[in-house]
C-alpha cells in the first residue's frame, strides 16, 4: 500500500508524512477493528449472542440471521463465542466428543491472529481437556490438560458446530452445553483499556490504537516498525495527546485515516493480491499473516506470508472483510464481487451459477450472501441466507449439477425458486466456504464456475 503524496506536517517533535499516517493506520486497523467487537460481546451482545462476561460462553440458539450484524457472519454452522481475559490466570477448557461430526474451536488474539485450533481437522472429534495459558505465565499447569499458549491477554474463542439444518439444531445445542471453561484462580477480569472520552470522534481510532499498543505488545518482527509511530503520539503512555491535538497533526491524521481506509477497501475488493479465477478471489492465504503458531495451526512456508509489509496489509483487509475467519487449510473463504463480464454484482440484475461438480470437501460447503460494504446477511422473504450441500429442497439437474438463481426478486420458475439465493437490492458479495477442503481446491484442478447474468 503506497501513497502518491509527499506532504508532511511538523507535529510536536518531528515531520510527519501522510504516508507514515497511512502506514500506521493499516498496521493498527486489525486490533482497532477487532477489540471493540470483543467489547460488544461482553456488554451489549451481538444479535442472537447475548452479552456474557469475560471467560463465559455465549451460545446462540440457532443459525445466524440479519440481526447478527457481524462482518461476514456464518450462516452454515451453530456458533459458540467466548471472550477470554487471561489476566485472571490460566483457563481450563473441556471439549465434548462430537461423534465424528465436524466442529472447530478457533482462538484469535488481540491482533486478529488465528493462533490455535481445536477441532476435527486439528485434534479429531474425541473429548479433550486444554489449558489456555496467558503470556509469560510462570506458574504450574494441570498435568492432564494440553497447553495452548496465548500471545495476548485478551483472546476470542470462536466455536463452530456442524449442523445439518433446522432439524439438527437440537444435537448441536447439546454439544454447546457440554463445553466448559474453568479458571484456575478466582480473579476479576480487567477487561479492555478504556480510551479517553475527551478525544473527538475523528481521532478516536488513534486513541484506541494508542491504548491497545500499550496493552498488547507486538510480535517481535514489528517492534522496530511500531517505534516509528512515536511522532504520531501513538507511543505516549500518559494523558491522551489527541484530546487537544496540534491542529495540523490532527488534520493529517484524519486525512491519512480516510486514505488508508480507502486503500484497505480497494485491496479487499480486488482480493488483496489473491489469485482470481472466474472472478472468484481464491484468497487461500487471506489468514496467513500469523505472527504466532500454536496448537492446531500449520506454520509451514506455504501457509505463511513471509513479507511483513504484505502480511500487515492482508491482516487489515481480512479484519475488514472476514474478521475471525478460518485459515484456508481449515475452511477457505472465496468471495466474488463481479459477474462473468467483470461487472459489479447488484440487485438490479438476476444471475445464475451452475455447480458441476460440487466443491470437493470432506465436510460440507456453502455459498452465503452478503450486502456491501459492511458484509452483513441479507433480510429476505424466505429467510434463506445461504445455499449449500445440506440445504433441503434443492432441485438438481439430471447430470447432478446445481443451478442457483441470485436475485432480489423471487423467481417465477419453480426450479429457480427452489434454488433461489436472495440478494439485496444494492451491491452484494457472495462467499463460498469449503470445510475440510480436498487438495483439488488448492492445486487448481477444481475451478469454481462464474456467476453469469440471466436473461430478463
Would you write up a description of this structure?
Residues 54-183 form the DUF1254 domain. InterPro entries: DUF1214, DUF1214_C_sf, DUF1254, DUF1254_sf. The chain has 456 residues and is an alpha+beta fold. It folds into 2 domains: 1-273, Domain of unknown function DUF1254 (Immunoglobulin-like), CATH 2.60.40; 274-453, Jelly Rolls (Sandwich). The chain is 22% helix and 21% strand. It contains 8 helices and 21 strands. It has helices at residues 18-43, 169-178, 204-215, 223-227, 247-270, 308-322, 414-418, 439-443, and strands at 8-10, 15-17, 57-58, 77-85, 91-95, 103-109, 114-119, 128-133, 146-149, 154-162, 180-183, 275-277, 280-282, 333-335, 351-355, 365-368, 386-388, 402-407, 420-422, 431-434, 452-453. A 5-stranded antiparallel beta sheet has the order 3-4-10-6-7. A 4-stranded mixed beta sheet has the order 9-8-5-11, with no helix packed on it. Strand 6 and strand 7 form a beta hairpin. Helix 1 crosses helix 5. The radius of gyration is 23 Å and the shape is globular. The two termini are 41 Å apart. The relative contact order is 0.15. Mean pLDDT is 92; it is low at 1-13.
Taking all Cα atoms into account, the compactness measure Rg is: 23 Å
Low-confidence stretches: 1-13
CATH architecture type of the largest domain: Sandwich
Quote the beta fraction.
15-25%
Main beta-sheet annotation: 5 strands, antiparallel
Please state the overall shape, judged from the principal axes of the Cα atoms: globular
Q: How are the strands ordered across the major sheet?
A: 3-4-10-6-7
Number of helices: 8
Would you tell me which CATH topology of the largest domain applies? Immunoglobulin-like
Amino acid at each position: 500500500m503506497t501513497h502518491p503524496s509527499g506532504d508532511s506536517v511538523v507535529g510536536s517533535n518531528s515531520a510527519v508524512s501522510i504516508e507514515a499516517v497511512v502506514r500506521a493506520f493499516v498496521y493498527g486497523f486489525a486490533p482497532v477493528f477487532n477489540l471493540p467487537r470483543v467489547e460488544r460481546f461482553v456488554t451489549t451482545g451481538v444479535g442472537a449472542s447475548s452479552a456474557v462476561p469475560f471467560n463465559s460462553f455465549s451460545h446462540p440458539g440457532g443459525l445466524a440471521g440479519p440481526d447478527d450484524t457481524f462482518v461476514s457472519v456464518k450462516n452454515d454452522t451453530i456458533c459458540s463465542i467466548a471472550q477470554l481475559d487471561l489476566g485472571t490466570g490460566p483457563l481450563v477448557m473441556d471439549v465434548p466428543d462430537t461423534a465424528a461430526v465436524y466442529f472447530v474451536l478457533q482462538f484469535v488474539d488481540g491482533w486478529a491472529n488465528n493462533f490455535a485450533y481445536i477441532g476435527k481437522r486439528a485434534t479429531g472429534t474425541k473429548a479433550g481437556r486444554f489449558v489456555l495459558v496467558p503470556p509469560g505465565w510462570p506458574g504450574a499447569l494441570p498435568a492432564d490438560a494440553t497447553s495452548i499458549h496465548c500471545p495476548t491477554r485478551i483472546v476470542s474463542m470462536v466455536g463452530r458446530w456442524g449442523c445439518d439444518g433446522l432439524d439438527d439444531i437440537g444435537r448441536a445445542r447439546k454439544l454447546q452445553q457440554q463445553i466448559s471453561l474453568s479458571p484456575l484462580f478466582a480473579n476479576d477480569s480487567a477487561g479492555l483499556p478504556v480510551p479517553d472520552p475527551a478525544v473527538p470522534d475523528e481521532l478516536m481510532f488513534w486513541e484506541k490504537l494508542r491504548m491497545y499498543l500499550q496493552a498488547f505488545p507486538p510480535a517481535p518482527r514489528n517492534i522496530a516498525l511500531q517505534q516509528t509511530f512515536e511522532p504520531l503520539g501513538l507511543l505516549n503512555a500518559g494523558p491522551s495527546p489527541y484530546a487537544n491535538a496540534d491542529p495540523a497533526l490532527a488534520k493529517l491524521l484524519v486525512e491519512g485515516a480516510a486514505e488508508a481506509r480507502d486503500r484497505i477497501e480497494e485491496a479487499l475488493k480486488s482480493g488483496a493480491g489473491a489469485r482470481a479465477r472466474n472472478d472468484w478471489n481464491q484468497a487461500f492465504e487471506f489468514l496467513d499473516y500469523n505472527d504466532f503458531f500454536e496448537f492446531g495451526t500449520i506454520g509451514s512456508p506455504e501457509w505463511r506470508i513471509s513479507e511483513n509489509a504484505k502480511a500487515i496489509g492482508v491482516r487489515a483487509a481480512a479484519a475488514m472483510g472476514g474478521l475471525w475467519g478460518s485459515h484456508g487449510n481449515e475452511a477457505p473463504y472465496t468471495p466474488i464481487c463481479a459477474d462473468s463480464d467483470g461487472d459489479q454484482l447488484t440487485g438490479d440484475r438476476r444471475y445464475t451459477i451452475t455447480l458441476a461438480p460440487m466443491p470437493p470437501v470432506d465436510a460440507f460447503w456453502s455459498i452465503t450472501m452478503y450486502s456491501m460494504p459492511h458484509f452483513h446477511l441479507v433480510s429476505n422473504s424466505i429467510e434463506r441466507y445461504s445455499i449449500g450441500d445440506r440445504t433441503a429442497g434443492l432441485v438438481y439437474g439430471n447430470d447432478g449439477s446445481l443451478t442457483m438463481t441470485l436475485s432480489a426478486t423471487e423467481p417465477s420458475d419453480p426450479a429457480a425458486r427452489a434454488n433461489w439465493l436472495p440478494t439485496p437490492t444494492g451491491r452484494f458479495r457472495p462467499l463460498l466456504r469449503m470445510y475440510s477442503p480436498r487438495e483439488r481446491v488448492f492445486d487448481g484442478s477444481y475451478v469454481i464456475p462464474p456467476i453469469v447474468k440471466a436473461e430478463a
